[in-house]
Amino acid sequence: MNGAGGQSAGDSTFTVNGLGTALSKTGWTAKASKLSPYATDVLANMIDDDTDTRYSSGTGQESGQWVEVNMGKAQTFDTIALDSGSSTGDYARGADVFMSSNGTKWTKVAALSSDGQHIEAVTFAPQTARYVKVVNTGSAGNWWSIAEFNAYD
């Protein structure tokens, strides 16, 4: 990871403040439109609370790629954050955020604009939902990698 001025932070860990309380990921599952051919880049990695593992698309980013998280039950939250971990160039170039109570009817709640950071957070009016879908609206030669997907209340 990089610290201030783009200098390497080495193996240092840090906490992003001001996002609220992270929801427990117990019982969460995930799926995606694109899956990496590498067995180490599986979907479960983006919800395992370990930034040293990741999910990756296994292909360059393109508009319409998506990841979906089933939180197992309806929860109320107002922020999500996507952390690309050590794959700092693999952040979404832009994305729309959708919520659903049943996984079939979706409501757009926010648009994520990339500022080139490997931790992307988007805040919206508080929502109660079981499912969250993030749909990539940008494109890049880089894969889309998510080391951690978090929701905050």
Helices and strands, with pairings:
Blueprint: E1 29-32, E2 55-61, E3 66-83, E4 94-100, E5 107-113, E6 119-136, E7 140-146, E8 148-152
Short structural summary:
By secondary structure, the chain is mainly beta. The chain has no helices and 8 strands.
Q: What does the model show?
A:
The radius of gyration is 14 Å and the shape is globular. It is an all-beta fold and 153 residues long. The strands form two sheets. Strands 1, 3, 4, 5, 6 and 8 form a six-stranded antiparallel beta sheet that branches. Strands 2-7 form a two-stranded antiparallel ribbon. The chain contains no helices and eight strands. 0% of the residues lie in helices and 48% in strands. The chain has strands at 29-32, 55-61, 66-83, 94-100, 107-113, 119-136, 140-146, 148-152. Mean pLDDT is 90; it is low at 1-10.
Key structural traits:
153 residues; mainly beta; 6-stranded antiparallel β-sheet; two-stranded antiparallel sheet
